[in-house]
Amino acid sequence: MSADTHKHHSAEELANLAKKELDAVISRTEPLKPKDRIAIPAQEMPTQDPNTRRTNMSEVALGYGVEQARLEAMRCLKCKNALCMDGCPVRIDIPGFVDAIAQNDFQKAIDIIKKNSLLPAVCGRVCPQETQCQEKCTVGKSLKDVEKSVSIGRLERFVSDWERESGKMKTPEVKPETGRKVAVIGSGPAGLVVAADVRREGHGVTIFEAFHKPGGVMVYGIPEFRLPKKIVQMEIDTLTAMGVEIRTNFVVGRTRKLQDLIDRDGYSAVFIGAGAGLPKFMNIEGENLVGVFSANEYLTRSNLMKAYDKGKAQTPIYASRKVAVLGGGNVAMDAARTAVRLGAEEVHLIYRRTEKEMPARVEEVGHAKEEGVIFHMLENAKRMLGDEYGCVTHMECLRYELGEPDSSGRRKPVEIKGSEFMREFDTVIVAIGNDSNPLIKQTTNGLNTTKWGNIIVDETQKTSIDRVFAGGDIVLGAATVILAMGEGRRAASSINELLANEK
Predict the structure, then answer these.
(1) CA-CA distances (angstroms) from residue 203 to 183, 267, 274, 495?
(2) Fewer C-beta within 10 Å: the chain N or C terminus?
(3) Alpha-carbon distance 302 to 220, whole Å?
(4) What per-residue confidence (pLDDT) applies to 111?
(5) What is the pLDDT of residue 354?
């Protein structure tokens, strides 16, 4: 597979370009006017060379240097109405922290972010800023290109990495013990935020995690090359330093029923952040053949169980030659790019709409193409075929065209009758989304859910059961880290208010 042929700039080249540009800006005697700020070039993110990174699991994006970060921050127009904040689910003071970076005050910048967000190193890497804060950015609108917006996410990542690497990370202060305790089910983004915010108020917090490692989707779902696990671990270490207890291999609904946590174990409130871990399949012929995987299983084996490290892996992973990945979201990109790194000769991504409708981040699509993933648009699987041993060998596909927009606003894919054709594959990864974990619903009386199994909550994140709150993917369906965090913040505030009123 040949990587994309566009010129790849090294981190050193980008740093030198930024230094010259920054020196020119700083040497000006006049203050920067909006037109001067818009004229500053958007800073390219330094990345590993595509041909090198296809063979390793190290992080692809290398992060801005100081000059790049300051220059990018100087592109901000400091708008009075700060529309970027409207696009942020946790309402970070974006102009404030960006201006602090431009002024070379990185401590002030991270302090501003941490008032609203506990996971800036994570969000700076994996949040879809181009459909949130950056979509609203006036600079991007002025240049009629959201990719030219101020790179808020990259700046958030820069300053959180600066904090970690300079050893300035502080453990948040905890108020005196109240004697009350709160159970948090799941250690993904929503659960971690609830644990921190509730613990700060002096309440005891226990996190119950079904897997053997905490971190939720950040650990089992997102690959190392996009989100290094040491970053997630440092956030978890901060919680333990605050006095939060984490119990792994604990499946609420199996190990213990939810209601027992309140009735027998003395927890004053429970937060359910169990995520959306139930993979969706297409329900077509041949999906049970050997070599057909959910993206969940494939990524969990690689990410959580380190299957890519063949000498030390805790689990085997399927050796593939020709891989098909079905889907067009970030999980599909993660699966395809993981298959490349695990040594597949060819990786094909099959999506039934066009690239314009893909929910995946533009950056992830670009990285997948650079790494040699082959894209097939307006196609989908009709059935899988196998050999006498029950292993997948071929996939029958259908061609599609786009019809009228559906409820999501995207044009609906319509199959073209009689367009069937065969492709040869020895591995198929289904990445078409996840549903909520059904176990808690099945083992808890009186918990109201939607027909898709998502827990129903009110505006305070309270469920239909007294003292039980919920948030993140189990409420929203598969969403983003920052949206889960926003729900966690609301839930924690409601729990803290409930307990304060009961003094």
Answers:
(1) 10, 10, 21, 10
(2) C
(3) 8
(4) 93
(5) 94
d(Cα 429, Cα 299) in Å, to the nearest integer?
Answer: 10
What is the rounded distance in angstroms from the CA atom of residue 130 to the CA atom of residue 152?
9
Q: Cα angle vertex 143, ends 479, 159, to 5°?
A: 55
Contact in structure between 430 and 339 (CB atoms under 8 Å): no
**Three-state DSSP state, 368:** helix
**Could you tell me the domains of the chain?**
11-165 (1.10.1060.10), 181-277+436-501 (3.50.50.60), 279-434 (3.50.50.60)
Structural contact between residues 129 and 146, judged by C-beta atoms closer than 8 angstroms? no
Residue 430 pairs with which residues in a beta bridge?
294, 326
End-to-end CA distance of the chain: 65
Q: Find the radius of gyration of the CA atoms of the chain.
A: 24
Categorize the per-residue pLDDT at 313 as very low, low, confident or very high, splitting at 50, 70 and 90.
Answer: low
Contact, 376 vs 350, CB < 8 A? yes
Phi-psi region of 161 (alpha: psi -120 to 50; beta: other; left: phi over 0): alpha
Q: Is 290 exposed, middle or buried (0-12, 13-18, 19+ CB in 10 A)?
A: middle
Give the mean pLDDT of 305-328.
Answer: 81
Secondary structure of residue 247 in the 3-state scheme? strand
The one-letter amino acid at 438: P
Query: What count of other Cβ atoms lies within 10 Å of the Cβ of residue 270?
Result: 24
Instruction: Summarize pLDDT for 175-206 with one digit per residue, the tens.
Output: 999 999 999 999 999 999 999 999 999 999 99
Q: What is the 3-state secondary structure (H, E, C) of 421-448?
A: EEEECCEEEECCCEECCCHHHHCCCCCC
**pLDDT greater than 50 at residue 480:** yes
How far apart CA 143 and CA 438 sit, in angstroms, is 46
Quote the pTM value: 0.91
CA pair distance 210, 247, nearest whole angstrom = 9
Q: 167-174 long-range CB contacts below 8 Å, 24 or more apart? A: 168/107, 168/110, 169/234, 169/238, 171/238, 171/241, 171/242, 172/196, 172/200, 172/238, 172/242, 173/200, 174/199, 174/200, 174/202, 174/242, 174/243
Q: Which tokens belong to 134? A: 């950056």
The Cα-based distances of 237 to 14, 97, 172, 242 in angstroms read 34, 25, 12, 9
Distance between CA atoms of 278 and 275, rounded to whole angstroms? Answer: 9
DSSP-derived letter for residue 175 is P
pLDDT category of residue 3 using cuts at 50, 70 and 90 = very low
Residue with tokens 């296809």: 54
Contact 273, 486 (CB under 8 A): no
Categorize the per-residue pLDDT at 25 as very low, low, confident or very high, splitting at 50, 70 and 90: confident
DSSP class per residue in 79-115 = -SS-HHHHT-TT---HHHHHHHHHTT-HHHHHHHHHH
Residue 307's pLDDT is what? 66
